[in-house]
Write a structure and sequence with these properties.
Number of domains of chain B: 1
CATH topology of chain B: Amidase signature (AS) enzymes
Order of helices and strands of chain A: HHHEE
Structural class of chain A: mainly alpha
Strand content of chain B: 5-15%
Shape of chain A: flat
Largest sheet of chain A: 2 strands, antiparallel
CATH class of chain B: Alpha Beta
Largest interface: A-B, 50 and 75 residues
Structural class of chain B: alpha/beta
Number of strands of chain A: 2
Helix content of chain A: 25-40%
Radius of gyration of chain A: 23 Å
Distance between the termini of chain B: 11 Å
Low-confidence stretches of chain A: none
Number of strands of chain B: 11
Oligomer: heterodimer
């Protein structure tokens, strides 16, 4: 299956990635070749098979609903790009 | 000292033949002399290593220290290390200094192992050649114009170049076994859930597993003893007793049934690799093992299923890199969307961006059922192939990869050609099974590997057979010409 340029642009937006004009043809070609590979799946007979999301069945462990973490805010904010008074700061969202 | 195995180093340390400080300094000297030739290590932690070695020597002098006490090792740069940069081979995390240790790192620190530094890798573990690292490719010590394999190429090359006796690594589609094969060392991917992934940067969460790399199977067993543990902090960690993996190394292979999948010896396998692998199987047969031809009929679907599931999970996992809490943030963002978009575009390399786009495609509305849902169903077919096979055989063996190490750039323009490098290793990740690669020959002056696949939690048997193979062959003792 080949992928259209318009679809690549939409995927880039969804993925929060920018693809520049110079490379878009190249990216489109390479993605199409990967999709041709994964299209081989369509030939497999998977009727009546369930989707499995884990290699083998294990049930999810549960724990008591108690606070188990200590406050590590300072340690984590020490490696943040920008903080202010204990908050992570980002560029203005609303004018 | 750098030619000793971990088992020999442990004896030397416990018998006082040398101290951990001397040993650590020896490896640090080698790293400073040779690492520029191979680019296997991103960060060297010399001062920290010598401090840890001093403490290890004190512990050793008191007696009753754990096996790994004082032994120097390297960690793949995917494991978080408290106070030491953890880059995952990416510009995105070039400035990331975690405030905590991964459980695997903690387990080694608990036992007194000495961390020499952090090894180079494909960016976010996405690659089979180490060419996608932000820090430049690792060179194969057997031929510096050739790739070391990936993604754990730095760990594999460092061991082959005798810069460390062992290292940690991770395997999502072959990232331990394939570089182990191409660099002529031993590497084990344990059962999914055997080793904690807490603090290991996620690539594809239903496939990722950590494991050991060393020159011998015995050393891998020693490392796995330390790495494997049940961890409350990892919800995929399996609460199952960890045996002493060294205890059964001496068992005989007599009567062992080895399944040989015919699909692993078909078109695309280098004739030299085939000869080496068949010779290895004959060697085991001569020791009393029984070879049984088997079929894994859905093998050819494993690469396509993997290249849906792994990118889909990666696109979700890597959405956390947005320039807000840690990692790379672009200069002067004009608004929030611009910050997200430019931080990710400037911070991620080409292959990582490609996989995010593929994953986003497979998960997007209208395509989910046809790709992701279908791949998860195919995963069951692949798993069924293995469970049928294990009804009649104890282990499955074949080549680790189709050919010896290829030259840099050889597969650069075609992502699919690179993806096929993992054709024999991917299925075990999809099924969650353990697999190992051990050196079994030299083809075109480069090493090739024998892959040993076991049933769930049967690492001890894999290591036992690998060790027995290494008692009757000397491929694991071969050294690259440039290394003395």
């Amino acid at each position: 299956m080949t992928i259209e340029r318009k679809e690549i642009e939409k995927l880039a937006t969804l993925s929060r990635l920018a693809i520049d004009e110079k490379t878009i043809a190249d990216v489109t070609g390479r993605l199409s070749s990967v999709l041709a590979l994964v299209d081989q799946l369509q030939n497999a007979n998977t009727d009546s098979l369930q989707e499995i999301s884990r290699p083998f069945h294990t049930s999810q462990r549960l724990r008591d609903d108690e606070v188990s973490e200590t406050d590590q805010r300072d340690a984590f904010q020490a490696i943040a790009p920008e903080t202010h008074n204990g908050l992570f700061t980002v560029p203005k969202m609303i004018e | 000292m750098h030619n000793y195995t971990i088992a020999e180093l442990i004896k030397g340390l416990q018998n006082n033949e040398f101290s951990s400080v001397e040993l650590t300094q020896h490896f640090l000297d080698r790293i400073s002399q040779l690492n520029d030739d191979y680019n296997a290590i991103i960060t060297v932690t010399g001062e920290q290593a010598l401090n840890a070695a001093t403490l290890a020597d004190q512990r050793l002098s008191l007696g009753d220290a754990p096996a790994m006490c004082g032994v120097p090792i390297l960690h793949k740069d995917i494991f978080c290390t408290d106070g030491v940069r953890t880059s995952c081979g990416s510009k995105m995390l070039d400035n990331f200094i975690p405030p905590y240790n991964a459980t695997v790192v903690e387990n080694f620190a608990r036992d007194g192992a000495v961390m020499l530094g952090k090894t180079n890798m494909d960016e976010f573990a996405m690659g089979s050649s180490n060419e996608t690292s932000f820090y430049g490719p690792v060179k194969n010590p057997w031929a510096t114009d050739s790739v070391p394999g990936g993604s754990s190429g730095g760990s594999a090359a460092a061991i082959a170049a005798r810069l460390a006796p062992g290292a940690t690594a991770t395997d999502t589609g072959g990232s331990i076994r394939q570089p182990a094969a191409l660099c002529g060392i031993s590497g084990l991917k344990p059962t999914y859930g055997r080793v904690s992934r807490w603090g290991m940067i996620a690539f594809a969460s239903s496939l990722d597993q950590a494991g050991p790399m060393a020159r011998t199977a015995e050393d891998c067993a020693i490392l796995l003893n330390c790495m494997a543990s049940f961890d409350e902090k990892d919800s995929t960690s399996v609460d199952k007793n960890v045996p002493d993996y060294t205890a059964s190394l001496g068992n005989s292979v007599k009567g062992l049934k080895i399944g040989i999948p015919k699909e692993y010896f078909s078109e695309g396998l280098h004739p030299g690799t085939e000869v080496a692998v068949r010779k290895a199987l004959a060697d085991l047969e001569a020791q009393g093992a029984e070879l049984v031809e088997i079929s894994l009929p859905n093998s050819e679907l494993s690469v396509p299923a993997y290249y849906v599931i792994a990118p889909a999970e990666a696109s979700a996992n890597l959405s956390r890199f947005d320039g807000v809490k840690y990692g790379y943030r672009c200069e002067n963002p004009k608004d929030l969307q611009d910050m997200y978009c430019r931080s990710r575009t400037e911070g991620f390399g080409e292959e990582v961006q490609r996989r995010i786009l593929i994953g986003t495609y497979c998960l997007s509305a209208g395509y989910y059922d046809a790709y992701y849902g279908k791949a998860q169903q195919v995963r069951q077919l692949i798993q069924q192939d293995f469970s049928d096979a294990f009804k009649s055989v104890d282990l499955i063996m074949g080549p680790t990869c189709p050919s010896p190490a290829f030259k840099f750039g050889a597969k650069g323009d075609d992502p699919v050609a690179m993806y096929l490098e993992d054709i024999y290793t991917i299925a075990t990740n999809l099924a969650g099974l353990p697999g190992m690669s051990v050196p079994c020959g030299i083809v075109e002056d480069k090493p090739v590997g024998l892959q040993i696949i076991g049933n769930y939690f049967d690492e001890a048997r894999i290591l036992n057979v690998a060790h027995q193979f290494q008692q009757i062959t000397n491929w694991h003792q071969q050294t690259p010409e440039a290394i003395s």
